[in-house]
Prior knowledge:
Largest sheet: 8 strands, mixed
Oligomer: single chain
Number of strands: 22
CATH architecture of the domain at 84-144 and 221-311: 2-Layer Sandwich
Amino acid sequence: xxxxxxxxxxxxxxxxxxxxxxxxxxxxxxxxxxxxxxxxxxxxxxxxxxxxxxxxxxxxxxxxxxxxxxxxxxxxxxxxxxxxxxxxxxxxxxxxxxxxxxxxxxxxxxxxxxxxxxxxxxxxxxxxxxxxxxxxxxxxxxxxxxxxxxxxxxxxxxxxxxxxxxxxxxxxxxxxxxxxxxxxxxxxxxxxxxxxxxxxxxxxxxxxxxxxxxxxxxxxxxxxxxxxxxxxxxxxxxxxxxxxxxxxxxxxxxxxxxxxxxxxxxxxxxxxxxxxxxxxxxxxxxxxxxxxxxxxxxxxxxxxxxxxxxxxxxxxxxxxxxxxxxxxxxxxxxxxxxxxxxxxxxxxxxxxxxxxxxxxxxxxxxxxxxxxxxxxxxxxxxxxxxxxxxxxxxxxxxxxxxxxxxxxxxxxxxxxxxxxxxxxxxxxxxxxxxxxxxxxxxxxxxxxxxxxxxxxxxxxxxxxxxxxxxxx
Length: 472
């Protein structure tokens, strides 16, 4: 029997798993997909929000600001791509400049460091010369940052697994029975007993909660579409560019990614299904028309792909974190939409402390906070490359030319803790296939390597699991 079972291996579930692994507890993560970060955590803006936007006093405000402050230490421990590039909130009407001050004051109330400044047009154009002629001023947010959302999630999960947390993939929760002193979870594969459950199931959190609790939640899948541009235009802006919210909504953001691309989006549309991540002509046209308010020129010839993700929006508007009122030892971490990525470390710590107190758990003195990522050939100088190739010649064979990803990196991504089992799993760990040609050249070799490492035929290799076979 487990002490703790976490349902969901997105960024929230993985952050909770890592924090729980700091205690002497037998813990397990159940994930219905074949890998971590297969839902909201793989398709979002990758923004570490400063914390000026949430309403003061809400869980969103508290977790956002605390989580933001945890990223520097986490990056040193877990070795994932993160950069504090800062953010700007743009104003397009002189009459609205006082709203920037209101936003600044809200940030201070939320606990954002008082380093925020309001700039006039001349000042803001000096630091971001490619902004549009419509901009009249901006609020600076120096603590804002950018992160690779899936590499961050993978790093949390790997470290949790290295510290003893068991991950069970392709495991869909079908029912939960609450007995006097334990839960029995039935999945598509087995029955699992546990003392305590943490529900971090994203857009399906409402469904999991309803298996044991009569508390009503209304979680809607809110789709956001994005456009990704080539690295050739990654320096269009250096900061994350937000638009001052108006009656027409929050607008779209324009941001560099931590990997050097340019990203525009998202849209915000509530949908009925919870698995529809199609992009639409209307969505992409909406992004470009609204982004023109922020930057002078949108380099459409440099678009390399578009994608969509779903956010778990709870209609009351705030995160739902805590024990169900009518079900002891069942803890929810649901409705975690933006700024959920930023808040995940703080949510993980908060819930792990709650679990440790409930189960009277001792701190595990053997916990190791350090996780090393896959060596990135593209970021090395030639001396470092020669040294690596001398140890393993497969690092001297380039597979993905766009992103300079080697065979050694791909094999490492499959062999390591919670290693890749699909083409998309390799892509998220190494960036093989994420470049300008979008895997046009490297996919064949990636499939071959994956088949070799997993000991299966190439016909069995999938893009992301289930029926997504690469070859027939």
